[in-house]
Design brief:
Radius of gyration: 15 Å
CATH topology: Porin
Number of domains: 1
Largest sheet: 11 strands, mixed, barrel
Number of helices: 1
Distance between the termini: 26 Å
Amino acid sequence: MFATTTFAQKAKDSTQYTFITIDGKGGIHNHAGTKLGYITKDNIVKNNQGHTLYFIDRDGNVVDAKGNKLGKAAKNGNYYNNNGEIMLQIKNADEAKCAILDPEGHSWGYAHKNYKLHACAAHCFFLEQQRAAKAKKDLLNKAGKN
């Protein structure tokens, strides 16, 4: 299941928030340290089973495994949704890592400086997966109560 048009839209609910980190080897982890996926040497993001989740093309477009454009990653690490609105941005935290920040400056995670291009895109992708899973679960729970 991949997010398409709802990927990284404006509405952010910090109570549903997942802190994302990308380590120096390209491993993507949630706030509890659970590995969610990884970035290959070819800049393709895969889940733990090795299935492609998304990649960033030469123009910075973030494209899922089905060919849907999800947004745009700028070379400086900023991430824009398909409407051109900035969703997340990168700021150097120290020599080795960058902070993932929303437009208001709130921290949403960290990424190793070598993976700056993927930092915001990965965060948005995994957050949207979490939201979609919760929505599906809520729908199933609601259907079971009727």
